[in-house]
Amino acid sequence: MRIALIADIHGNLVALETVLRELARESIHHIICLGDVAALGPQPHEVIVRLRQLGCPVVLGNTDAWLMGDSASDTKTLRAITRWCIEQLTHEDRDYLRSFVPWLALPLDEGRTLLCYHGSPRSFDDVIAAVTPEATVEKMLAGHSAAVMVGGHTHIQMMRRYRDAHLVNVGSIGLPGVNAGSPELPDNQHVRWAEYGVLIVEQGRLSIDLRRIPLDLPAILAACQNSTMPHQDWWLQKWDSH
Predict the structure, then answer these.
(1) In this structure, are residues 72 and 66 in contact, taking their beta carbons and an 8 Å threshold?
(2) Could you give the CA distance from residue 202 to residue 94 in angstroms, rounded to a whole number?
(3) Are strands 104-107 and 148-151 parallel, antiparallel or unpaired?
(4) Model pTM greater than 0.85?
(5) How many helices (H) and strands (E) does the chain have?
(6) How many CB atoms lie within 10 A of CB 101?
(7) Which of 3, 5, 43 is nearest to 173 (CA)?
(8) Is the pLDDT assigned to residue 186 strictly greater than 80?
(9) Backbone angles phi and psi of 54, in degrees to 5
(10) For strand 113-116 and strand 148-151, is the pairing parallel, antiparallel, or unpaired?
(11) Could you tell me which residue ranges the Calcineurin-like phosphoesterase domain spans (predicted)?
């Protein structure tokens, strides 16, 4: 079984299509999206249309909730971009957002399970980082157990042990240069890649592949510049255009 794990697309269709082309080159049995699909990027509607075509399960992220009217960021720039993204959505897009689940579990083999969430099963706003104390992680995961527990939210790839489990963050497809959750984590400006993960379970063997692939930067920048998204400078300065 090969499971592709994607997260934090943030309205970046160019990056999403790049990752999907990579995945099409191998045998993938499932794709699971870990949330934050459309907000804060220049192609929110287009990304939702593409995900609906995939038909993959999607976990609810914090910025997905913003698009349904929950409190948005306290940053003026992000609030303005979020309002613009909401205006781009159709009724069908909003219905699709309401279908997202807070977490999901998928059986693997030999009694092992994959647990998927955005920040944690407790809250899409939780941050599980390499430096998060185990006692804090225990509270976030209370009532849940799995061989592999995987999320997004921070935009920073990570793998760590938690008791007998692997805790994984697959990074961000659409905004990997933005630290989205914790002041103790780095903010990697000027990136040129998309991030995702693949979980492989074969004949009792389990492996987790965290991947980073290059992007077509001119296409990324053009998608933004050809949109009417406000505060485009915020988006453009995240990408290494040199």
Answers:
(1) yes
(2) 38
(3) unpaired
(4) yes
(5) 8, 9
(6) 12
(7) 5
(8) no
(9) -65, -35
(10) parallel
(11) 1-177
The torsion of the CA quartet 212, 217, 222, 228, rounded to 10 degrees, works out to 50
Q: How many CB atoms lie within 10 A of CB 140?
A: 19
**How far out from the chain centre does Cα 142 lie?**
22
- C-alpha to C-alpha distance for 23 and 35, rounded to whole angstroms: 18
CATH architecture of 2-232: 4-Layer Sandwich (3.60)
Question: CA-CA distances (angstroms) from residue 221 to 75, 79, 168, 235?
Answer: 23, 21, 30, 9
Token pair 């509607």 in the structure block, residue: 45
Mean of pLDDT values over 64-80: 86
Q: What's phi and psi for 206, nearest 5 deg?
A: -125, 130
If you average pLDDT over each of 71-85, 119-133, 177-191, which comes out highest?
A: 119-133
pLDDT at 109 over 80: yes
Helix (H, G, I), strand (E, B) or coil at 235: helix
Secondary-structure breakdown of the chain: helix, strand, coil percentages, each rounded to the nearest 5: 30, 25, 50
H or E element at residue 198 = strand 193-202
215: amino acid identity, one letter: L
196/211 Cα distance (integer angstroms): 5
Integer angstrom CA distances of residue 88 from 67, 145, 224: 10, 38, 14
Closest listed residue to residue 81, CA positions, set 237, 199, 227: 227
DSSP 101: B
What residues does each domain of the chain span? 2-232
Q: Please, which contacts does 66-73 make with residues 24 or more away whose CB atoms are closer than 8 Å?
A: 66/39, 67/38, 67/39, 67/94, 67/97, 68/94, 68/97, 68/98
Token pair 């899409």: residue: 124
Count of residues making up the chain: 242
